[in-house]
Specification:
- By secondary structure, the chain is an alpha/beta fold.
- Helices cover 52% and strands 13% of the residues.
- A hairpin with a 5-residue loop joins strand 1 and strand 2.
- Helix 2 packs across helix 3 and helix 6 packs across helix 7.
Length: 500
């Protein structure tokens, strides 16, 4: 049985390593705040959500729409999804309690543990089938419709009855019947477990029968060696069956493990949707565009991590930037530039894993990879200067870059002087654009930003943090020419005037 709630035709690979830059993405885009909002304190949901969000689907638009449909079903049927998830959790918890016998080296211990575990799993599978029958019609997505049809087809009524019968027999209430053949050196070979007689002979049959169907003997209670020999014969007979039953239990457990993980991601997404919608944040299911289409437009785009942190409605930004590859963002300090950068990066990640985004509308081209290059604190170990550290990280990013990726810069190359930092930034950005990498760049380097402004490239867009008369920040980004000042004096005056 397969769940296939994340992919139409395959399982999600939970063992695949996280991308090499995952720590930078989590730190720079405040992804940890979003994951905390998804998990609600559940570490397991947080981990599976992290793995799905950071596993880029590349150019697979159909998978994104497939997941969006599954998530919409989850949002509309929250109670049912919660019950399905709880059944999967229960199965995994029962495995932890019942699995000791299956891990035994003795075939008898393996068989006993597997039979006990299968009895528990049959009960949970039965509850899952009831949920599918009672609520299946409420679901519209291909993922859940296929899952429920599979449960109905694979788990008919007679299946449960047959399994219960087999499990009762595998407890051997009438003892173990094993046949064997003579092998080399007159030793026993080809031990085969046989089904025991279903009913005992009646009294008159036992009395007037010609003789016993076979010879028998009884082991003395104090004969430890004889008991050990009999136990070894029993284990040889049931070894194949023990392995088969153990594999059956493991197969069902793998189904519940996958069900828990995949449904866990959608529960995390639903948790986040609920928290953000309660705050009044705009939420939508994005329309991804093909890789290389250079689509990039959004309405009321907001930073999900900031919304979760402040707990209130925040300012959003609109963007009409189809055909643009370079986004240079300048303007007043604390005017919303870094917030917009995070919002764009988080929305890209959330779209590409099949989630909703914090915007009224979001129509953006997919990318192959997402990278960030943010300014870092000084190296406290004094092994290198801050600028050297920036260049080393930039080199590592370039080695991993592929065409049709996105790179988010935040105050990069500002650790040296204006002229040198601007020239290095300019050369790097031009090389990235030639390699078909989309660039978002927040900077205070006037030579860098104004140099690109003078180039008047049709694929560039210049945004500036709005500052009203008197220094008030609106946290809106509007198209505009870069200015030589970032209005740091506004903040100085606000801080020190406030102390007087």
């Amino acid at each position: 049985m397969k769940t296939h709630l994340l992919f139409r035709d395959r399982d999600f690979d939970w063992d695949q390593p996280l991308p090499a830059n995952h720590e930078a993405l989590v730190q720079d885009l405040s992804l940890g705040t979003v994951l905390n909002g998804m998990s609600g304190g559940d570490e397991y949901i947080q981990e599976v959500s992290k793995r799905v969000m950071l596993a880029n689907v590349g150019d697979d638009i159909e998978t994104i729409f497939y997941r969006q449909a599954v998530l919409k079903d989850c949002l509309q049927n929250g109670a049912v999804i919660g019950n399905i998830y709880n059944l999967a959790v229960d199965a995994n918890e029962r495995k932890r309690k019942q699995w000791f016998g299956v891990l035994s080296k003795s075939p008898g211990g393996v068989l006993s543990g597997a039979v006990e575990l299968l009895q528990v799993l049959m009960d949970i599978l039965g509850k899952l089938r009831v949920l599918a029958r009672e609520h299946g019609r409420k679901f519209q997505s291909e993922g859940f419709v296929t899952l429920f049809k599979m449960i109905e087809a694979e788990l008919p009524d007679d299946y449960f009855e047959q399994v219960k019968t087999y499990l009762r027999e595998l407890k051997f209430p009438e003892g173990v019947l094993v046949s064997a053949e003579l092998g080399e050196n007159m030793g026993a070979a080809q031990h085969t477990l046989r089904r025991a007689t279903k009913s005992k002979p009646k009294f008159f049959q036992r009395v007037f029968s010609e003789g016993p169907p076979s010879y028998s003997f009884k082991i003395n209670d104090k004969d430890d060696a004889g008991a050990k020999a009999i136990a070894e014969l029993r284990d040889r007979g049931i070894n194949v069956v023990a392995n088969a039953v153990s594999q059956s239990a493991e197969h069902i457990m793998s189904f519940f493990a996958m069900l828990r993980a995949e449904v866990g991601f959608y529960i995390g997404s639903a948790n986040l949707y609920s928290r953000l919608s309660q705050q009044g944040q705009p939420l939508c299911f994005p329309t991804p565009a093909p890789i290389g289409s250079r689509k990039h437009s959004c309405t009321e785009l907001r930073d999900a991590s900031l919304a979760l942190t402040v707990g209130t409605e925040i300012t959003g930004n609109d963007l009409r930037a189809d055909g643009k590859d370079l986004f240079l963002i300048t303007g007043a300090n604390q005017g919303g530039k870094s917030t917009f950068l995070r919002a764009a990066g988080l929305a890209q990640i959330m779209m590409q894993c099949g989630m909703f985004v914090t915007a009224q509308a979001f129509n953006v081209a997919l990318c192959r990879h997402i990278h960030t290059h943010y300014t870092r604190e000084e190296d406290v170990t004094m092994k290198s200067g801050k600028f050297d550290e920036e260049l080393r990280r930039m080199s590592a990013i370039v080695d991993a870059l592929t065409p049709d990726s996105i790179l988010f810069f935040n105050e990069s190359f500002a650790a040296t002087n204006e002229r040198e930092g601007s020239e290095i930034g300019r050369q790097i950005v031009k090389a990235l654009l030639e390699a078909r990498v989309k660039v978002f760049f927040v900077t205070h380097l006037y030579e860098l930003s104004h140099g690109f402004w003078k180039d008047n490239m049709p694929n560039s867009l210049f945004l500036r943090a709005e500052r009203q008369a008197g220094g008030k920040r609106t946290f809106k980004l509007l198209p505009g020419e870069p200015l030589q000042t970032s209005f740091g004096a506004d903040l100085f005056q606000e801080i020190f005037d406030g102390k007087n």
